[in-house]
Amino acid sequence: MTDGTQGQGPRTPLEALVVALRQAPRGVRVAFRKVSGETTERVCTLNPALMPPPRERPKGAPPPRMTLPGLLNVYQLDPPGWKCFRHENLIRFSAVDEEAPDGGKPAR
């Protein structure tokens, strides 16, 4: 996979996650800690081919929600919808294609 940095790979886990979210053809399984302290796992994407088309904003409608520093907005595939989590709460991630058939960690 390429990330558009002219031969340099992602430098941080967050950069690697964003690259995977944009490029993985079946989504990325992301585990993170919620604000409540609970750990959750979701299959998410930033791949335009997996997301619904953007909606046009009706005249007079408020502007779209701004992304706050320290948060990553992702599109969850099932159930579908936009979610966000704090960068520092990322635990692990793997492209769905790289997982073992039983949903466990990849065999490497």
Helix content: 10-25%
Query: What proportion strand?
Result: 25-35%
Q: Would you tell me the overall average pLDDT?
A: 83
- Alpha carbon gap, first and last residue: 18 Å
Radius of gyration from the alpha-carbon trace, in angstroms: 15 Å
Shape: globular
Low-confidence stretches: 1-5
Major sheet: order of its strands? 4-3-2-1-5
Number of helical elements: 1
Q: Look at the helices and sheets and give the structural class.
A: mainly beta
Order of helix and strand elements from N to C terminus: HEEEEE
Oligomer: single chain
What's the story with the biggest beta sheet?
5 strands, antiparallel
Number of strands: 5
What report would you give on this structure?
With 108 residues, the chain is mainly β. It has a domain at 32-51 and 70-100. 10% of the residues lie in helices and 31% in strands. The protein has one helix and five strands. The protein has one helix at 13-23; strands spanning 28-33, 39-45, 71-77, 80-86, 90-95. Strands 4-3-2-1-5 form a five-stranded antiparallel sheet, covered by helices on one side. Strand 1 (28-33) and strand 2 (39-45) form a beta hairpin. The radius of gyration is 15 Å and the shape is globular. The two termini are 18 Å apart. 13% of the residues are buried. The model is unreliable at 1-5 (pLDDT under 50).
